[in-house]
Amino acid sequence: MTAMVTVTVTTIMSAVTTAASATAARAPAQAGVFEGLNPTIYNPADPIILFIIQATIVIALTRLLYWPLTKIREPRVIAEVITGIILGPSVMGRIPGFTATIFPPAGMAPFRLAANIGLILFLFLVGLEINLNYLLSNWRITISVATLDMAFASEPGTAPVSFGVFALFIGVAIAITAFPVLCRILRSLKLLNTTVGVIVLTSGIANDVVGWILLALCVTLVNAGAGITALWVLLATVGYSLFLAYAVHSAFMTVLRRTHSLENGPAEGVVALTIFLVLASAFFTSVIGVHSIFGAFMVGLMCPHEGGFAIRLTVKIEDLTSTLFVPLFFALSGINTNLALLDSGVVWGYVIAVTVVAFMSKMIGGTLGARFNGMVWRESFTIGALMSCKGLVELIVLNIGLQAKILSTRTFTIFVVMALVTTFATAPLVSWLYPPWYQQKLDLWKKSKIDWDGNPIVPSEREAQEKDLQEDVANRLPVSSVMTVSEIEEDAGQDPIVKAFGTSTANNTARDVFVSGQVAVVPEGSFADALATQAVRGSSDLILVP
C-alpha cells in the first residue's frame, strides 16, 4: 500500500513538472527586460525585436551619411551602400561579437524578407516611372544612344565565349544604366528640361527595358537544368508578358474607368488591387524560373499614365518604400561586400580595370550615339557621362548574380566598388562638362543669336520668355521627376487651350503681341506662387487663367 502511494505521488509530481516546463517553453517572459530578456538574442517566435534594432541602425546611419552627400548633389544610394559596408565584415564586423549580436545568420531571414519586399515594390516603381510614349516620341536618337551605349559596354565582357552565362551576365552588369538614380541626378542638376536631359531619360528607359530582359534571360539560363527547360521558361515569360500587356491591362483599365481613378486618383481599393497584381506577378515570374522583380517591373510598365494616374499612385507608395524598405536592400548589398578580399595588388588591378572598362565603354557609346545625331562634342560627352551611372540597378543585378552563384564574393565586391565609384563620379563630372553658363551659351548659339565666341549676331528688341514651369514642378512635387516632365509634355501637346494659345501666338507675332501658354501641375497651395513666378519671368502684361 505504501509503495503504491509513493508511485502515485511521484507520477503526479513528474506530470506537474513536465506541464510547467511545457508552459514555460510556450509562454515567453511577459515582463521583457525586467525578467532578463536580451533583445539582441534572436527569437524565431518573435523576430520583430531584433529586426527593429537592425532597421533602426541602418536607417539612422544612412541618413547620417546622406546629409553631407546632399551638399555635393550625390544620390542616396551611395550612403545606403556605404552603410552596409560599414556594418558588414569590412568595418564593424571586425569588432568581436558585433555581427553575431546584431546581424546573426539566423536573424537575417526577416531582414532579407523585408529587403526583398522592398526590392519588389521598388522595381514596380521603376516600371511605373517609364512612360513608353515618351520613349517613342524621341525614338531616333534614343535608339542611337542606347544601342551604341550597350554595345560598347557589353563587348568587353563577351569575348571569352566559353564563360557562357557568366559572360552574358557581366555584359549586362557593365551595360546597364541606373535609370532611377539618373532621374534624381538630372533633377538635382536642373537638366530635366534640357535637350541633354530628354535624350538621357529616353535612352535610359530603352537601356533599362533591354537590360531587364537580358537579366531575365541570364536568370533563366542559370535556373534551367537543360536547354529545353530554358526554352520553356522563355516561352512562358513571353506568353505571360503578352497576357499582362493585353488581357490584364484591358481589365485593369476597365476598373480604373469605372472607379474614376484616372480623373480623381487611385482609390484605396485600386491601390490594393495594384499591390495584389504586383505580388501575384512577382510570384508567377519567380515560380517559372525568372526573378520575382521582373514580374513587378512588368506590372509597373502596364500601369497607365493618363490623367496623372501613375504620379498619384507613386505618391501613395513611394515614401514608405524609399524610406524603410529600399535602404534595407542596399545595406544588405554592403553587408555582403567584404573589402578584406581585395587583399593584393593584382585584385586592386582588377578593380581599376573593371571600373575603367565600365566607365569608358559607356562613355564612348553614349558620346558617339549623341554625336552621330548632330550634338556638339561637349553635349555628347555629357550624355556619355550620365549614361555611365550605375547606382541602384547595378547593385540589384549584382545581388542576383551573387544569389545565383554566377559571381563569387570577391567578384561581387569588385563590382560593388566599381558601381560606387562610377555613381559618385557622375554628378561632379557632369557639373564640370555642362555648367549653366555653357548651357545658356549653347542655347543662344543654336538659336543663331550669338556666334561661338559669344558675339551677338542680331540685336534682340524684346524676347518672349517662354521657359516652361516643368522645372518648378519637378522641384515642388515629391514624386518622380521624369514622370512629371513626360506627362506634362504629353498633356501640353493634347490640351486644346494650349493649342488655342499657340494659334493666337502665330496670329499675333507680327503685331508685336507675344503670347505663351503652358500646362503645369503644381500643388494647390502653390498656384499663386507659380503664376507670379511665370509672370515675372515672362514680363507679362496680362495673364489668362482658364
From TrEMBL:
Chief location of this protein within or outside the cell: membrane
One of the protein's GO biological processes: proton transmembrane transport
Coiled-coil regions listed: none
Pfam families: Na_H_Exchanger
The organism's place on the tree of life at top rank: Eukaryota
One Gene Ontology CC term in the entry: membrane
Residues annotated as signal peptide: 1-19
GO molecular function annotation: antiporter activity
Membrane topology: Multi-pass membrane protein
Keywords: Ion transport, Membrane, Signal, Transmembrane, Transmembrane helix, Transport
Residue ranges of every copy of the Cation/H+ exchanger transmembrane domain listed in the record: 64-431
Subcellular location field: Membrane
Residues passing through the membrane, by range: 48-66, 78-103, 109-128, 165-186, 198-222, 228-248, 269-287, 323-341, 347-369, 381-400, 412-434
PANTHER family the UniProt entry points to: CATION/H + ANTIPORTER, K(+)_H(+) ANTIPORTER 1
Protein known as: Sodium/hydrogen exchanger family-domain-containing protein
